[in-house]
Every structure is written in structure tokens, then in C-alpha cells.
Specification:
Elements lengths: L16 H12 L9 H4 L2 H4 L27 H4 L8 H4 L1 H31 L17 H4 L5 H31 L7 H33 L2 H23 L9 H10 L2 H34 L4 H16 L1
Helix pairs in contact: 8-9, 8-12, 9-10, 10-12, 10-13, 11-12
């Protein structure tokens, strides 16, 4: 005969009268009564249910999903009147900048067309430069826009000062050659180099940096600006190099000046002093005008990519 299992309980503990009365009393308390919805009270789906919670509805409120990592302000945090940024607000500044550049470009095109119209009405102008042997036409008052004529006049003065400096430099070296100071052994070489530079550098400076910057202000072409920046940069370095006055370089500069005054050669020293002053003054002026031209280049919105496109276009036209 098997022994009875001590863990078997034939009675249901939930049918105990004390437990049943406790559960019934809690259900009848007002704190546990749910709100009765009269609309759903007579519904057939709820009437068929035998649950004690028949006719009761549970109201659930769902909040909109908000990304916790979003940088956009939530209207629940700052009120219903808070506005969220739109893509138009973000790109508004850039659009205004593009519109401003577009208006400036249209204005420059209108000015250029007006100048070309005035020139065509006047007919083909005769060549006027250089005065001794004119082979091209240059007129700052006619071809350069009014807002750039002041800078262009100063660039022309810089070029003229360069020619005067080359002449004074040659005269100083010639005086040193004739005075023949014993401490200066490179006088013949300096005079020959100065004579050569007086002719070659005159033409080179005109065609390599003065004429390009003239065309740059007249036509607003990026390629001409880059020609000026490159060759006028070399011109500035050459100017200060000649101001030093290293022997056998053709420069009547500071080293030669100190040597001549130390040996008592006053006349040669005076011409060398004038040439040294011209070299230094022209170098400072060139740096100042270089900065002015660069500011205009940046203000007009020119880029290196635009300069390359201009170069390719001109090479294509030349090959046709």
C-alpha cells in the first residue's frame, strides 16, 4: 500500500472563506472602481464578458515619439509657440551671399558693356603709348572703371618710378666706373649689367606685370590677376635685392654707398644714394599696391579654378 504524498492538498486554498471575503471587499471599495463609459456600457462585446470590469474603459494617453538625441527643440519643453528651424533659415545667409555676388557680376558686365559701347561710338582710337613710338592704346580714364582708376594711376606711377630708378642706377654705376675707386673692383661689370637691365627690365616689367594688371582691372579676368601676382612678386624681390648693392650685380645699393663715402668719392656717392633711395621707396610702394590689387581680387570673387579655365579657353582659341 503506497504512502500518501504529504504535499498533496485536496482542498483549494483560494476557496477559503476568509480569502474570498477579502478579495470581494477590495473589489467593492471606491478606490478600485474604474470610470464607466456609458457609450461602451451597452456594447454587445462588453456585455458578453463575464469579467467584473465589464463596462469599464481604460484611457491611455500616448506621447509623440521624440528622439532623445535630436537637437531640435521640442514644443513640449518650450511651449506650443516655439518654432522649429527650417532648411530655409539655415541656407538663407548663403543664398543672400550668392545673390549679392550675382548683382555685383551683373553690374560689372553692364559697366564693361557701357565702356565698350563708348569706345565703339568714338571709333578706333589711335595708338598713344609709348609717346616716343606708340604701338598700342592705353587710357586709364576711358578703359578703367572709375572706382579703380586711383589704384591704376598709382600702378602706372610705380612703373614710371622703376624706369627712373633703372636710369639712376646706370648713372651711378657709370660714375663709379669713371671715378675708379681702388676699393671697388667690380665697376666695369656693374656698369655693363646696369646698362643691360635698363633696356631689358623696362620691356619685361611692362609686358609681364603692368599690362596684365591693366587688363585685369579693365576686363576683370582672373588669369590677368595671376600674371600680375607672379611677376610682380619677382619684381618686389628684385627691387630689394638691388637695394642691397651686392658687387658685380649691377646694383647701386647700400653696400656700394658705404664704400664710396668711406673712400671720399662724394659725387659717385650722391648718385648711389639717390639710386638706393629709389630702390627702397619703389619696393615699399610695390608691396602696398600688391596688397591693394590682392584685396580687389578677393573682393571680386576670383579663384584659381577660374584662372585655369580662362587659360584653357585662350589656349583653345589660339590652337584653332
Amino acid at each position: 500500500m503506497s504512502k500518501p504524498n504529504p504535499f498533496d492538498d485536496p482542498s483549494n486554498p483560494f476557496e477559503d472563506p476568509s480569502i474570498t471575503s477579502a478579495l470581494t471587499s477590495h473589489r467593492e471599495e471606491p478606490a478600485y472602481q474604474l470610470e464607466t463609459d456609458p457609450i461602451h456600457a451597452n456594447s454587445s462585446s462588453f456585455a458578453a464578458s463575464t469579467d467584473d470590469f465589464t463596462g469599464a474603459t481604460v484611457r491611455q494617453f500616448s506621447a509623440p515619439e521624440v528622439d532623445p538625441f535630436s537637437t531640435v527643440d521640442s514644443p513640449y519643453l518650450h511651449g506650443s509657440n516655439s518654432s522649429t528651424p527650417t532648411p530655409g533659415h539655415v541656407s538663407g545667409g548663403r543664398e543672400e551671399e550668392l545673390l549679392r555676388k550675382e548683382r555685383e557680376l551683373e553690374q560689372r558686365e553692364r559697366d564693361l558693356e557701357q565702356r565698350q559701347l563708348n569706345i565703339s561710338r568714338q571709333g578706333r582710337q589711335p595708338n598713344n603709348f609709348p609717346p616716343c613710338f606708340p604701338f598700342l592704346y592705353l587710357d586709364i580714364a576711358v578703359e578703367i572703371p572709375p572706382q579703380h582708376q586711383g589704384v591704376m594711376n598709382w600702378l602706372y606711377r610705380e612703373w614710371l618710378l622703376f624706369e627712373i630708378t633703372l636710369v639712376l642706377n646706370f648713372i651711378a654705376c657709370l660714375c663709379v666706373l669713371f671715378s675708379h675707386p681702388p676699393s671697388v673692383t667690380s665697376a666695369p661689370t656693374d656698369m655693363g649689367v646696369a646698362l643691360t637691365e635698363m633696356f631689358t627690365h623696362t620691356a619685361a616689367s611692362f609686358f609681364l606685370w603692368y599690362r596684365p594688371v591693366y587688363n585685369a582691372y579693365m576686363k576683370e579676368v582672373s588669369l590677368y590677376y595671376y600674371f600680375y601676382f607672379v611677376f610682380n612678386g619677382f619684381h618686389i624681390l628684385y627691387t630689394f635685392y638691388m637695394a642691397v648693392g651686392i658687387p658685380s650685380t649691377g646694383g647701386a645699393g647700400l653696400i656700394l654707398l658705404v664704400t664710396l663715402f668711406s673712400d671720399g668719392y662724394i659725387l659717385s656717392g650722391v648718385f648711389t644714394l639717390l639710386a638706393s633711395i629709389c630702390w627702397l621707396v619703389m619696393g615699399v610702394m610695390a608691396v602696398f599696391l600688391y596688397k591693394k590689387v590682392y584685396n580687389q581680387y578677393k573682393f571680386a570673387g576670383h579663384t584659381f579654378k577660374e584662372a585655369k579655365q580662362d587659360a584653357f579657353i585662350r589656349m583653345g582659341k589660339a590652337s584653332m
